[in-house]
Model the fold of this input.
Amino acid sequence: MRRTPLRLRDLLATIAALLLAIVPVRTSTGSDWQVVGTEDGITISRREPSGSSITAFRGTGAIDAPVWKIASILLDVKRAPEWVDSLKESRVVRRIAPDHYIEFNHVGMPIIMKDRDFVSDVRIEVDAAARSVALVYAPSGEPLSWTSHDVRGEIVAGLFKATALPSGGSTFTAEVQADPKGFIPAWVVNMFQKNWPVQTFERLRKQAAKPDITVPDAFADVLAPARSF
Done:
């Protein structure tokens, strides 16, 4: 089947979204992050990680949904292609612990480029005192049980964190530093990756508005405390 050509801008934004990015870029304070603008209630920041030509980006804003619902969207690999543009497949490769797993993501690229895939180490951090749930991603060298002919990208660093608000909604933070590898220059990746925070918020907000969001069975016990946030 012929693949529909996609805009490079959208593809690079998608690569950045695969959470991916995720050595983790923990929520940082101070001068590490530089605010570069706001859009749709989202504060957008950037930082230049030491020793890397790939810029990290962060978005912080509100989502009108409880913490458990946002976490459920992020953990539902079957739902991921609905809101991550060009994502062909997402799967859990291996569960290391109830709150720790290896994730595989396959991203479709235009006909002139090879598809990308990403293998990431993901940890779920539930903080009842702070009323928050975070997904922290780091690169993984986990071998796959199947053969992939894609270019192996790397989610270098990243974080998705939802914290409960008194209103019943959540403050959401998304941080990412993703390298698609191959022959895409770093300056091109940085130029288009800067749109990732806003695009990620838009898609998550639309998903969170759907009435059929449920906690994935595999993560029900881990997210149980978040039901009370």
